[in-house]
Amino acid sequence: MTGASRAERHSRTMTRKSVLVLLLAVAAVAGGCQKKAAAPAAAASPATTMTEDEKAVYALGAAIGQQAAQSIKALNLSPAELEIMKKGLGASLAGQTPEYTLEKYGQKLQARAEAHASTAAAGEKQKSAAFRDSAAAESGAIKTSSGLVFKTIKPGSGPSPKATDTVQCNYRGTLPDGKEFDASARHGGPATFQLNQVIPCWTEAVQRMKVGEKARLVCPSEIAYGDRGTPDGSIPPGATLVFEVELLAIKGR
User: Fold this and answer.
1) Residue 84 annotated in active site
2) Do 154 and 209 belong to one domain?
3) Catalytic residue among 150, 171, 227, 235
4) Same domain, 106 and 22
5) Domain coverage including residue 236
6) Is 105 marked active-site?
């Protein structure tokens, strides 16, 4: 669940596996570019020209590309650097001993990715500042010291949870532009989670709610996903998040 426990599982380091996936994706892209010039202008689609085995291999390449896309974006590589990366991959595939290893240079790649994320996060925060100010100025809205903007949409009449309680909620999460990145409906119904195992925005906000209440939460990145965003790219670095949350129940009460 994007709004809750998935934040606690977010990896903080670039692993060798993720870098390998990135390299494989670049190799696949390189191969496609080399063949592009020779392809006819009105080439048939892969679905009509490939065998079933070839389609399976195509699907593998597509999956690798999807997994690597965010790693490539995080490194912000120039075209010249992509060519250097392909040279390193080609050398390894040819059985050559690498001149430079990840054991020595992995930390440099991680630092570069973090620096790029920090720059992107700063831009995102600046872009969404006016949105947060506008939300805080709405009638009935409360802005707390953490930066949370809380507004009740529908009052509740039940008890309020403590941070250690397990709660059941319906929720929908969007970016300031209205793009949905997650919702409990996507996962088949209400989400159940321990309130102190979620992003700080939720831990703070849901304790303010009563069972039966529906509220709108505007969460600055500092109490959401920070300067890293999410690995799949659905939440950008530094993004302000908007949640509509309905507190359905407190387990054990």
Assistant:
1) no
2) yes
3) 171
4) yes
5) 126-250
6) no
